[in-house]
Design goal:
single chain, about 270 residues, 7-stranded parallel beta sheet, 9 helices, about 35% helix, 4-hydroxy-tetrahydrodipicolinate reductase, NADP
Length: about 270
């Protein structure tokens, strides 16, 4: 059994990860970790994650109290907590799956550097289908990326904190690298004013409204035709199941930087 800590167990992803891990025959939950002053600190993890049953393990507000008992940490919390979790994972040499988004480029560098000392898997999106979509995007970009106009449209609910989404940033980086460039040199975020579209750019459009589920579409616009590659989620279970699969994989690996593609072997 892989001994697992879930950070942010009351969040929408944390709740589902806790549920899937609790039902797993390969993962053993040993604790949840929440932010200080939350009213669920000290509660049973099952009650905190709204599972309707006790799991016999509890939620703490100090990861360092329980970190030595675990094999892997799954963190879908906040930018601030995510950086603290990273620091402690490195200090105690524990495998870390992080799906938190909103980090700056300099902060993302810290996650990449962590792979020198711990098994590290950062993924803005742990959905199996999203990562299959990424492979299709690589193929499309290699074949038609230089002769089409590329636009990325992503939709989320009104509570989404970062824009563009972490998933759409990963998509853009994948496309840019396939084109032999850096996303920072190609990305155009929204449009206004006059003038033709810049050749070779990647357009970004972020929609935020109501309780809209996560949705990402990449357009490859040619003349007389266009290709659309999309992923739409109806709930978050696929993402949570993917995160647990990542934890099972990562706990058995040596230090290094890993991706969901490594987990899926695609």
């Amino acid at each position: 059994m892989i001994k697992t800590i879930v950070v942010g167990p009351r969040g929408k992803m944390g709740r589902l990860i806790t549920q899937i891990a609790a039902d797993s025959k390969e993962l053993e939950l040993i604790a949840g970790v929440g932010a200080k002053d939350r009213d669920y600190i000290g509660q049973d993890l099952g009650q905190t994650a709204l599972l309707g049953r006790n799991l016999g393990v509890f939620v703490v507000d100090n990861l360092e109290e329980v970190i030595d008992e675990c094999d892997v940490i799954i963190d879908f919390s906040t930018r601030e907590m995510g950086l603290k979790v990273l620091q402690l994972a490195k200090k105690h040499r524990k495998a870390l799956v992080c799906g938190t988004t909103g980090f700056s480029s300099e902060e993302m560098k810290l996650f990449r550097e962590a792979g020198e000392t711990i098994p590290m898997l950062y993924a803005a999106n742990t959905s199996k289908l999203v990562n299959v979509m990424n492979k299709l995007l690589q193929l499309a970009t290699a074949a038609i990326g230089e002769e089409t106009d590329i636009e990325i449209v992503e939709m989320h609910d009104r509570w989404k904190k970062d824009a563009p989404s972490g998933t759409s940033k990963e998509i853009g980086e994948l496309i840019a690298h396939e084109l032999g460039a850096e996303l920072s040199n190609l990305a155009i975020y929204g449009r206004e004013g006059t003038g033709e579209r810049g050749k070779g750019t990647i357009g970004y459009h972020s929609v935020r409204m109501g309780d809209t589920p996560s949705s990402h579409t990449v357009f490859f616009g040619g003349f007389g035709e266009r290709l659309e590659i999309s992923h739409h989620s109806t709930d978050w279970r696929g993402f949570a199941k993917g995160a647990c699969d990542c934890a099972l994989f990562l706990a058995k690996q040596p230090p290094g930087n890993y991706s969901v593609s490594d987990v899926l072997k695609i």
